[in-house]
Amino acid sequence: MGQLEGKISIITGGGTGIGLGIARAFVKEGAKVVLAARNLPRLEEAANELQGLGGTVEVVPTDVTQEAEVQSLFSKTMDTFGRLDIQVNNSGAFDGGPIDEITLETWNKVIGVNLTGVFLCTREAMRIMKTQKGGRIINIGSISSRMPRMNSAPYTSSKHAVIGLTKSTALEGRPYGISAGALHPGNVEVEWRAKSTTSMDQESMMTPDDIAVAALAMAVLPPYVNMLDATVLPVEQLYVGRG
Q1: Active-site residue 155, yes or no?
Q2: Of these residues, 155, 176, 224, 239, which one is catalytic?
Q3: Hey, CA dihedral for 214, 219, 223, 229, is it positive or negative?
Q4: 73 vs 190, which has greater pLDDT?
Q5: Exposure b/e, 21-51, CB count within 10 A at least 16 = b
Q6: CA dihedral in degrees (214, 215, 216, 217; nearest 10)?
Q7: To which CATH superfamily is domain 8-232 assigned?
Q8: 194-243 pLDDT tens trace
């Protein structure tokens, strides 16, 4: 029997990258997963892979910045499975530039996905988990929540805010047996990095499956234990002492 046997998990941004890596790890441990993202073809490809591993997988195309779509995601999950044990808020957007050149459209896009989307999903998860008297919420943050890169104000600001939202969620969830923690990855080899020519994207990288190991460690903790904050990065990454 897997460590997550019978558990139900929603994973946003679940069609590619870190989200898919986490879904893969969860399915291997017996969880049933609901994958949410905007790109339906990618979601279906991911579902096919996970079903090949023997997993029970549902896909729900979702834009996490849209309240009605988020509500529909959770409603469909409850209609299908009747409960929610682990919510993984992984959907993310990256954009930036010099602060004096950033458009409001760019700012709102990044904040909308990275912060508002996490809030909307957390709100729906909390409503379900309060009734259940238990559940776990895992927010995928970033080491940018601690140490910013140049020209990344929207992204850095959003990830700093995710820490505050995570702590607030953990505090409010405490009386109901709900835990909340933030997992902060360093450099991860995802698709958009493969197309990048910037120096920071040529640094030492981890794989999405490496991050999934850490996410799984958070997910399988006893319900009375919470990993509030965790940072995972390549040993050779220029992070410690770079500021």
Answers
A1: yes
A2: 155
A3: positive
A4: 73
A5: bbbbbbbbebbbbbbbbbeeebbeebbeebe
A6: 50
A7: NAD(P)-binding Rossmann-like Domain (3.40.50.720)
A8: 555 555 555 689 999 999 999 999 999 999 999 999 999 999 988 877 64
Report the percent of the chain where pLDDT is more than 70.
94
Check if the beta carbon of residue 228 is closer than 8 Å to that of residue 181.
yes
Q: What is the pLDDT of residues 45-83, one digit of tens each?
A: 999 999 999 999 999 999 999 999 999 999 999 999 999
Structural tokens at position 203: 């640094």
Residues 8, 80: contact at Cβ < 8 Å? no
CB 215 within 8 A of CB 195: no
What are the residue boundaries of the structural domains of the chain, listed by start?
A: 8-232
What are the CA-CA distances from residue 50 to residues 25, 44, 46, 115, 123 (Å)? 10, 10, 6, 28, 27
- Token pair belonging to 127: 């409503």
CB atoms within 10 A of CB 11: 29
Q: How far apart are CA 47 and CA 205, in angstroms?
A: 26
What 8-state DSSP symbol labels residue 114?
A: I
> Which of these, 4, 83, 70, 11, lies nearest to 46 by C-alpha position?
11
Q: In the structure encoding, which two tokens stand for residue 85, read together?
A: 């044990």
Give every CB contact of residue 64 below 8 A, 6+ residues apart in sequence. Answer: 12, 36, 70, 91, 113, 116, 117, 118, 120, 121
